[in-house]
Amino acid sequence: MSEPLYRRELLRLAADATGTGRLGAPNATGHAFNPTCGDHVSVELTLAGGRIAEFAYETRACVLAQASASILGSALQDATMNDVEKLRANVGAMLELKEPPPSLPFEAYATFEGAAEYQSRHRCVLLPIDAVLDAFAKADTK
After folding, report:
1. Per residue in 9-26, is it b (16+ CB within 10 Å) or e — as a string?
2. pTM of the model
3. Burial classification of residue 94, based on how many CB atoms lie within 10 Å of its CB (0-12 exposed, 13-18 middle, 19 or more buried)
4. C-alpha 52 chain-centroid distance
C-alpha cells in the first residue's frame, strides 16, 4: 500500500465505521455507485426541518469510501442539503485543485490529501457524499 494514500489515520477512520447500519424509520434514502471499481454506498437519513437528525450507511466499497462514510457518520448531524453540497465542492477542490481541506466539522477529510495524486480514487472519496445528496434529492418529508 502507498503510504500517502493509505495513511494510518485513514485506515482508523474506516475501521471506526461511525454511523454504519440502518435506521428504524428513515424518511430519505440514497445510493451512489462507482462503475470503475464497483463500490456501492447506501445511506439512510431522518430529516427534520431540512436538517439531518439521523444518518446511517452501508458500504460495499474500498477503504477510501468507507473512511469517507465514517467521517460523515460523525459529522453530518444537523447538516442541510446546502451544507452537503458545499462539502462536496470543498472535498472535490481539495482533491482536484489541491485546495485546503474542509473546515469544522469536516476537517477529517484532510486525511485524504494523499488521494489527490490518484485521480481514479477521487470518486471513491466523494461517493458517500454523493449518496447523501441523492437521499436529499429523493427525500420524503411530507
Report:
1. ebeebbeeeebeeebeeb
2. 0.93
3. buried
4. 14
Nine-digit cell string for 29: 434514502
Report whether 20 contacts 58 (CB < 8 A): yes
The amino acid that residue 56 corresponds to is A
Using alpha carbons only, give the angle 41, 44, 49 rounded to the nearest 5 degrees: 135
**Backbone φ and ψ of 60, nearest 5°:** -130, 85
Distances (CA, A) of 111 to 38, 54, 71: 23, 24, 10
Instruction: Please list the pLDDT of the chain residue by residue as tens digits (142 residues).
Output: 445 677 788 889 899 998 999 999 999 999 999 999 899 999 999 999 999 999 999 999 999 999 999 999 999 999 999 999 999 999 999 999 999 999 999 999 999 988 999 999 999 999 999 999 999 999 975 4
Dist CA 28 CA 46 (whole Å): 6
